[in-house]
Design a protein that fits this description.
Blueprint (H helix, E strand, L loop, with lengths): L1 E9 L4 H5 L2 H25 L3 E6 L4 E7 L3 H7 L5 E4 L2 E4 L1 E8 L2 H21 L4 H12 L21
Antiparallel strand pairs: 1-3, 1-6, 2-3, 4-5
Helix pairs in contact: 2-3, 4-5
Organism: Chionis minor (Black-faced sheathbill)
Keywords: Nucleus, rRNA processing, tRNA processing
Subcellular location: Nucleus, Nucleolus
Length: 160
């Protein structure tokens, strides 16, 4: 059994999101787990830990870990203070949005979360052009099946 932790990268530096890679996120999270929980915590979390998805444009990160150690992982995420990308360090934080049992539940949560964010943007629009752009984005938020899924929505990297 696994857990998927959906996070967003929060940074004041706009270049941060474009420069990060999944490897850098994985290293930063492992480093934070090691600092907070020591070698035991790092060993427990490393068994099935991986960065399943990273969208540098939106700053969305999906982490996978074993169910038994998801609380260890989540408790270490606030201690990620920087990410390294293209030989530069960017100060940032990982904000945990959702913890789910499948990738699909995380996708559904993310759609609802983005819809709420867009509604807040819509309320703060100052002119009609902004309002039309946000409304168009809001209407495009949906989870569509473009191609049939193979089996379940979990990944197929074997039994651990």
């Amino acid at each position: 059994p696994r857990r998927y932790v959906l996070c967003e990268v929060v940074s004041e530096d706009p270049r941060c999101r474009q420069c990060i890679e999944d490897r850098a996120v994985g290293l930063a999270v492992r480093d934070a787990i090691g600092r907070v929980h020591g070698d035991y915590g790092l060993g427990c979390c490393s068994i099935s830990f991986t960065v399943k998805y990273l969208n540098a444009y939106t700053g969305t990160v999906l982490l996978r870990c074993r169910k038994d150690f998801s609380r260890l992982l989540c408790s270490a995420l606030p201690f990620v203070r920087q990410l390294e990308g293209r030989n530069q360090r960017y100060p940032c934080a990982l904000n945990t949005l959702h913890v789910g049992g499948t990738i699909r539940t995380c996708q559904k949560f993310l759609i609802q979360y983005n819809r709420r964010q867009l509604l807040m943007l819509l309320q703060n629009c100052t002119n009609e052009e902004e309002r039309r752009c946000v409304q168009k984005s809001l209407l495009s938020c949906s989870l569509t099946e473009e191609q049939p899924q193979s089996g379940d929505e979990e990944d197929d990297d074997g039994i651990e």
